[in-house]
């Protein structure tokens, strides 16, 4: 049983043996906490074996060597760990404070060689801790610095789609841990999706999905500085490309959040590059789950366009850019489908649009004409080719086609508005006016 010492630390009966083992190995308390492996795995295992032989008949010997294994796993000293395992150290020993086992702590401290050694000696690669029910793969997915451990676990056969008590998989852990500013887990996400086959449609008990994590960041960017918003936008672009390439549907509604496409179109001027990426990748321009659709892209675009023009009535340049962005979005939406379908009874109010009212009506009338008349053959061909190239971003696939540059440009619908470097996301206060 443990007893209190100085009201700060719990001391166990086996602690003296642990302290002596660590002293022989030259490990100081807290070693490995920064997540870096030792330069050379040169622990004095001969002295360690002498100590273990001498203490092998002592009380609490197995507990002492097992806890020592936990401490050694933290530092990455593989030879010392193997010595302790020969003396019956328990691979499943749980730290009495964190309830992590040696494999968990090796992952947390980014010790891939130790991870491989522990699994080779029989550690349960999918073992979950008792508090958070996190598996080693979950922990490895949560930080980019742990990518070596993530790769090692996947190579050794960790279950990439196993879920914790809340239904969260390693992919969802990687996305939920990414704030787009200080934590960017794009490489982890790519590894989980590309080589391991993570399920992009995984859903937690609370309805959280891979894309809903990006919806949260899209909204979070609205309250950030320009610099942070740009970083979040760049992360969202990278993560979205990966998810779309593996079949994620950004236009599907959930009970908790609007879909990613809807969230971007509602404020298309602030999230313009991501909105373009979604449409270039074949995202639906209306709800793909409900009938009749619970949201329409045409309604969202014209609502934002009209409200934005009212806010920019004293800034002609900003108003012109907004019109150009809206035109690009509408052009992409029309190109993705063989026929334009407007919402039933859809009308556009230009009240407050001032001098730009006629331009807004021109956009609306053009869509009406497209809806009422049969699509030309070239439009049908474009929509068919784009559909055949799905899923995922189309740019690379179109560029690989043996076609003239002009036809590639026609397939991709080139645009030049609001996509300059550093302008991925713009918080409202950084645009002409707030929402």
From TrEMBL:
SUPFAM superfamilies linked: Ankyrin repeat, SOCS box-like
PROSITE patterns: ANK_REP_REGION (PS50297), ANK_REPEAT (PS50088), PIPLC_X_DOMAIN (PS50007), SOCS (PS50225)
InterPro entries documented for this protein: Ankyrin_rpt, Ankyrin_rpt-contain_sf, SOCS_box, SOCS_box-like_dom_sf
GO annotation terms (biological process): intracellular signal transduction
SMART domains in UniProt: ANK (SM00248), SOCS_box (SM00969)
Domain SOCS box: 362-411
Keywords assigned: ANK repeat
Pathway involvement of the protein, from the record: Protein modification; protein ubiquitination
Residues spanning the signal sequence: none
One Pfam family, short name: SOCS_box
First and last residues of every ANK repeat: 98-130, 132-165
Highest taxon, organism lineage: Eukaryota
UniProt name for this protein: Ankyrin repeat and SOCS box protein 6-like
Organism name: Acipenser oxyrinchus oxyrinchus
């Amino acid at each position: 049983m443990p007893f209190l010492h100085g009201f700060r630390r719990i001391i166990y009966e086996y602690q003296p043996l642990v302290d002596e083992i660590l002293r022989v190995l030259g490990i100081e308390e807290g070693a490995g906490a920064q997540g870096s492996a030792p330069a050379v795995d040169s622990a004095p295992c001969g002295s360690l074996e002498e100590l273990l032989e001498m203490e092998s008949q002592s009380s609490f010997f197995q507990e002492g060597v097992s806890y020592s294994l936990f401490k050694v796993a933290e530092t990455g000293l593989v030879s010392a760990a193997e010595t302790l395992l020969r003396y019956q150290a328990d691979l499943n020993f749980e730290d009495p404070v964190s309830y992590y086992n040696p494999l968990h702590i090796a992952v947390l401290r980014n010790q891939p060689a130790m991870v491989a050694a522990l699994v080779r000696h029989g550690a349960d690669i999918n073992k979950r801790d008792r508090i958070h029910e996190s598996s080693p793969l979950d922990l490895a997915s949560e930080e980019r610095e742990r990518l070596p451990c993530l790769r090692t676990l996947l190579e050794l056969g960790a279950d990439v789609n196993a879920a914790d008590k809340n239904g969260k998989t390693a992919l969802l852990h990687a996305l939920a841990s990414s704030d787009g500013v200080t934590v960017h887990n794009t490489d982890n996400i790519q590894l989980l999706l590309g080589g391991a086959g993570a399920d992009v449609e995984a859903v937690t008990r609370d309805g959280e999905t891979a894309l809903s994590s990006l919806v949260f960041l899209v909204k979070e960017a609205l309250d950030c500085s320009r610099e942070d918003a740009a970083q979040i936008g760049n992360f969202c672009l990278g993560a979205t490309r990966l998810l779309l390439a593996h079949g994620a549907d950004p236009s599907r509604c959930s009970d908790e959040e609007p879909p990613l496409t809807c969230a971007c179109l509602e404020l298309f001027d602030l999230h313009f590059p991501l909105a373009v990426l979604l449409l270039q990748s074949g995202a639906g321009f209306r709800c793909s789950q409900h009938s009749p659709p619970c949201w329409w892209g045409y309604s969202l675009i014209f609502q934002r366009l009209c409200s934005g023009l009212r806010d920019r009535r004293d800034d002609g340049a900003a108003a012109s850019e907004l019109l150009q962005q809206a035109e690009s979005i509408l052009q992409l939406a029309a190109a993705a489908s063989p026929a334009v379908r407007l919402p039933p009874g859809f009308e556009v109010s230009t009240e407050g649009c001032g001098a730009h009212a006629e331009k807004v009506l021109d956009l609306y009338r053009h869509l009406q004409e497209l809806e009422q008349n049969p699509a030309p053959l070239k439009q049908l061909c474009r929509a068919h080719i784009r559909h055949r190239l799905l899923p995922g971003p189309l740019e690379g696939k179109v560029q690989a086609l043996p076609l003239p540059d002009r036809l590639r440009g026609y397939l991709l619908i080139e645009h030049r508005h609001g996509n300059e470097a550093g302008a991925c996301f713009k918080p409202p206060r950084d645009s002409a006016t707030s929402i």
